[in-house]
Specification:
186 residues, 73% helix
Length: 186
């Protein structure tokens, strides 16, 4: 047990886990805020919670560079922190949303599915230009038969894909090394 605790006693991992949990909880709070405002909380407007991820990844890189890195942060450290934070936050947020739609208000998920089906049927003519009728009906049935566990997979996959570019930019902005081509030695 001591070996496991020592493994998690690394500053890079501790900072990433803490900031990831905070990001996940804040993203879920954003979901709850949309729900309280009677806005479809599983709709496209939820992509704005990516801003929470970006702010907390930036904050984590700055904090780690200031407290643990003695003013330095390698690119690999920033990239690692960004992807760990995004992964932890997406997993936590996905599970919290799943628990919410299964135990608190299942109508959120049924509204999400009905909105997806409405979108499919409204654009049926456009989709039939590149899908056959059988393929369209298969897609329609897959959307109709989804269960709430799909929310976890969607949250993780969407957030990790959406966070690729911001994590790269944040990592380059906060990177500061004590060696390099342009570093002059005393």
């Amino acid at each position: 047990m001591k070996l496991i605790l020592e493994y998690f006693n690394k500053p890079l991992l501790k900072v990433s886990l803490v900031f990831g949990m905070i990001a996940g909880l804040l993203a879920f709070a954003f979901f709850l805020g949309l729900y309280a405002l009677k806005i479809m909380p599983l709709g496209n407007i939820r992509s704005f919670d990516m801003g929470i991820f970006v702010i907390l990844i930036s904050g984590a890189c700055w904090y780690h560079r200031k407290t643990n890195g003695n003013g330095f942060l390698h690119l690999w450290e920033a990239l690692t922190m960004g992807y760990v934070i995004a992964s932890i936050a997406a997993i936590l947020n996905g599970w919290l949303i799943y628990l919410f739609v299964t135990h608190v208000d299942p109508s959120v998920f049924t509204e999400y599915i009905s909105e997806g089906l409405r979108l499919l049927t409204d654009n049926r003519k456009d989709q039939l230009s590149y899908l056959s009728e059988a393929e369209f009906m298969k897609l329609y049935n897959e959307v109709r038969d989804n269960d709430p566990s799909i929310l976890i997979k969607n949250e993780i996959s969407q957030k990790l894909v959406l966070s690729i570019i911001p994590i790269l930019i944040i990592s380059l902005v906060f990177r500061k090394q004590d060696y390099g081509v342009f570093h002059t030695k005393p």
